[in-house]
Specification:
238 residues; alpha+beta; four-stranded antiparallel beta sheet
Amino acid sequence: MSTDLERGPSPQDSYNPGGTSEVPNNASRTSLPDGIGPALSSNNTSIIGSDGPAANPAEEWGPQHPCFPHMNPHVSVNSPLYQTTRIIRIKRDWMVEGDLAPTFSNLYPEILDPAGVSEQDFRKLIERINSELILAFSPWGPRNIFDVVMSLATGWVWDDLGFTAVKGRLRKVEKYLEEWNKDMENRSKDGPGSAPMIVPLRRTGYMNLDIQVPDPEVSYPTASDAERTDTGVSAAMQ
């Protein structure tokens, strides 16, 4: 070893093939049972993230799919309609007006075609509903601003008497849906009982547009006993 303290020990004299640390050397490079595991999990995904973007839930068959036939929650479970009808649920489209007004997606569920609702009829329906709801709920509309001023000036008597435009427009929408249902009944080849019917928007809180159709007899995803509710119905079918 060199006697020069400023230079330190000679690298050749201090070389040790086993290392100079006093910590025991762990020859194994595998993780311990309680460790973080291997770099890749059993499904070939990295521990720091997946290998790619998550699948779109709307493209997988299930309650999020546009064509999925939901059980009918608008009738009694003891009613024959609960067994013979299903609900095709049209979801809200938040890209149109955000949360200023309820608007619905114009993505056509092809399962409506056998029920007698063509794509043209569906898009015309959605366009009419969305346009009316935007005028009714948008806070920046001239009539809505006028109604707010009048309600403040009269101590909300203007609103209590039903003079606001929003109530009249919503009644107009409900009347249009009733006429649409009657038109579908008249056009139905198998009788009024098999015609598609739109559930009033007040029943869904304007969160969904539910269309009642005859049961298309599409198979549902299988559910284990743990996934079933107290009524025995799969949670995926709710």
